[in-house]
Design a protein that fits this description.
mainly alpha; Rossmann fold; four-stranded parallel β-sheet; 3% strand
Length: 716
């Protein structure tokens, strides 16, 4: 017989022996207990449970029976009953229980949401080991869950009494008091803990938070400085100190301290530190905006420092966006602005995935800040990355090219076209540069190539048709104005119609400052195939409306051309135009100053002076005096030849408005799936005071316009 069988036979024999003993003495708890142990060895759990329970019934203080019964219930995965009998065991004989049993059982009851029993276990554990602070913390959590906050305070007071020289017990009591907003008592406890342990930085930190709560910023600052002194790696200490410096309006120190936090913060908490940094910057930004202050050096530098932090973290998009803000707020033509632009360029130089749009955005920012040469270079970078990136080409069309830079600019486009001869818009831009160089014949050749390539790129089937070498007919339509009234949107919507082929850019400005280049130069901008009856073409130069001479020139050369005019509430148009000029780096003054000066100047002018003044600066308000302009055009052209549209109707019902445009042009309606707003400005609403000034100024002119046209605009 092997050993396991021998042992099994012995257990069976012993069970039989104890069974016989019970027959003689059924009220002996020890016999039931021993018999339960034998059944447990055989894993006969139900019989073992019955034996243990009989032992307990006879002797309710039988601690070992409770204990073994708990073990059996654990074996059969009945944790609830196991915990119950375990609890009975330690209550029956607490002196024999080790502290880890109290914590283990307490945790079990806590998980079962039996908080009263859990608290009892933890309390017993604390009695066994009164200096075990984690036990106090666990019990305090249970008491807080029960809403017994005052008991938490009493618990830690008990800990302080039993551990009078342990500063952490005073700190724990202080935190309990602070949670109940008993600030004075909490401060006294923190100070006591510091008295016992002078370099107790955790106590300084919590004490500082109370001083912050009381808005005692100087005392709070002293505490957080101590924190950093005793623990140079504690990120929260730096962040709280930074916020205190902000409250004390010591912004440079706030940013420097926050930067230190970012430097030492682990990856998991860097974002929090960066958020603090941004919060300080934004607070200062709002403060300066509300008070009308100029941003000073420390805050431009603050944005730049944050940009470099993002670069270091390889968050390049955030780095560029932050640097963009720094350039925006830097004073014009200052060393700070130079530093901000240089930092922007540094981030670009280190960017691992440059796209044309990144350089395009940089170019827009530079142009807004009147750094036109640098803006041109940025647009060229975008085109070098992607020669078909239209936005960069378009922004170059409306960026003034300095004469000294013209040769380089022309050479750039020649190189692009040598490698990518099918980019139609590039031929058009080269033509503009050659025109500026007064190389008119070559410019005309470029425009014709541009027209052809742009057309067949959109509609490849047009390449199969015959194209005349020279266009002879004038444009079928001209959008004559007004600026910032929706002209770009109308122009773009027309460009979606396959029967309408447009030039390489919207604004040709021929009948004004480019008139001397000649009609052949002008017609070269339009696809020659539009001389056929089945295609139309046209342009949109919104400032045409302002010049009486332009009306005469169009009448002289192309008397049958259809004219489209959009008129927007002159208040909104004036404001929009100002910000349009501001964003292009043409003007620098604020809206209120510009408006006041122009009204003063206009008051000194006669009606004839205003009409002849035309488009010379300033022209924010004068362009909105529509009555003077409309009269001149209607005196020269037939009323049926000019379509006058209210911009607000166009914005709200673009499909219906475009149907009117097609009726004017003699084309079937061509509705689009969507009508996105093109070239929409972005700026904050003007102050009501400015709107009232403009409202009062324009009101009589608007009324005269309505009477003259027999149209209601209802502008206010």
């Amino acid at each position: 017989m092997n050993q396991s069988k021998l042992q099994l036979n012995q257990i069976t024999a012993t069970i039989e022996k104890y069974t016989q003993m019970l027959a003689k003495n059924p009220e002996a708890p020890e016999i039931h207990f021993n018999l339960g142990n034998l059944y447990a060895q055989q894993e006969q759990w139900e019989k073992a449970i019955l034996c243990y329970k009989k032992a307990i019934n006879i002797n309710p203080q039988f601690a070992e029976a409770y204990h073994n019964l708990a073990k059996v219930y654990l074996k059969i995965d009945n944790e609830n009953k196991a915990a119950y009998f375990w609890y009975k065991a330690i209550k029956s004989e607490p002196r024999k229980v080790q502290i880890k049993e109290y914590w283990s059982l307490g945790n079990t009851f806590k998980a079962q949401k039996k908080l009263g029993k859990a608290a009892d276990c933890y309390r017993q554990g604390i009695k066994v080991q009164p200096d075990f602070l984690p036990g106090y913390h666990v019990l305090s959590k249970v008491l807080n869950e029960q809403g017994k906050h005052n008991e938490v305070i009493n618990l830690y007071r008990q800990g302080v009494r039993k551990n009078p020289q342990n500063p952490k017990f005073y700190q724990a009591l202080a935190q309990a008091l602070a949670s109940q907003k008993k600030w004075q008592k909490a401060k006294a406890c923190y100070k006591k803990s510091i008295e016992i342990q002078p370099k107790f930085w955790e106590a300084y930190y919590q004490l500082g938070l109370i001083f912050q709560q009381e808005k005692k910023w100087q005392k709070a600052k002293d505490c957080q400085i101590k924190v950093i002194q005793f623990n140079k790696k504690f990120v929260s200490g730096y962040l709280q100190l930074a916020l205190i410096y902000q409250k004390l309006e010591q912004y440079q120190l706030a940013l420097e301290t926050c930067y230190q936090a970012i430097e030492i913060a682990p990856e998991s908490s860097k974002e929090q530190a960066i958020a603090f940094y941004k919060k300080i910057l934004q607070h200062y930004s709002q403060l300066n905006s509300s008070l009308g202050f100029q941003f000073n050096k420390e805050f431009v530098s603050g944005y730049l420092q944050l940009a470099l932090i993002y670069q270091k973290l390889e968050q390049y998009q955030l780095a560029l966006e932050t640097c963009h803000q720094a350039v925006e707020i830097a004073p014009e033509s200052s060393s700070l602005e130079e530093q901000a632009i240089a930092t922007y360029q540094k981030i670009l130089d280190n960017h691992p995935q440059l796209t044309p749009d990144i350089y395009h955005q940089f170019g827009k920012l530079l142009r807004k800040k009147s750094h036109f040469i640098d803006a041109i270079a940025a647009y060229q970078k975008a085109i070098t990355i992607d020669p078909n990136f239209r936005l960069a080409h378009i922004h170059l069309q409306y960026t003034s090219i300095p004469p000294k830079q013209l040769p380089q600019y022309i050479d750039f486009y020649r190189q692009i076209l040598a490698k990518h001869p099918q980019v139609g818009i590039a031929w058009g831009n080269l033509g503009d540069a050659l025109t500026q160089q007064n190389n008119i014949q070559e410019a005309i050749t470029c425009y014709r190539k541009s027209c052809y390539l742009n057309a067949i790129d959109t509609y490849p089937e047009l390449a199969k048709l015959h194209w005349k070498e020279v266009k002879e007919s004038g444009p079928d339509f001209i959008i004559i104005g007004a600026a910032k009234c929706g002209t770009t949107s109308v122009y773009e919507y027309l460009g979606n119609n396959p029967k309408i082929l447009l030039p390489h850019k919207k604004e040709l400005s021929f009948f004004g400052k480019k008139y001397d280049y000649g009609v052949d130069w002008y017609l070269a901008h339009f696809p020659t195939i539009t001389d056929r009856d089945d295609f139309l073409t046209g342009e949109a130069t919104p400032n045409y409306i302002c010049f009486p001479l332009i009306a005469q020139r169009i009448k002289q050369h192309f008397p049958n051309t259809k004219l489209i005019l959009l008129l927007r509430n002159p208040i909104d148009r004036t404001i929009s135009w100002h910000y349009h000029q501001l964003n292009r780096g043409i003007v620098k003054e604020d809206l209120k100053t510009v408006i006041a000066r122009e009204i003063t100047e206009l008051e000194s002018l006669s009606q004839e002076d205003i009409i002849n003044k035309n488009y010379r600066q300033p022209h924010n308000i004068i362009t909105g005096l529509y009555i003077y302009q409309v009269k001149i055009w209607l005196e020269l052209f037939n009323r049926e030849q000019i379509l006058i549209l209210k911009s607000e109707d166009f914005y709200s019902k673009p499909a219906e408005t475009m149907e009117k445009v097609y009726n004017l042009l003699g084309l079937p309606n061509y509705p689009l799936a969507q009508y996105p707003k093109i070239n929409k400005g972005s700026y904050n609403p003007a102050e009501e005071e400015i709107r009232n000034i403009l409202r009062n100024y324009f009101e009589p002119y608007n009324r005269e316009l309505e009477e003259y046209l027999g149209m209601e605009f209802n502008w206010s």
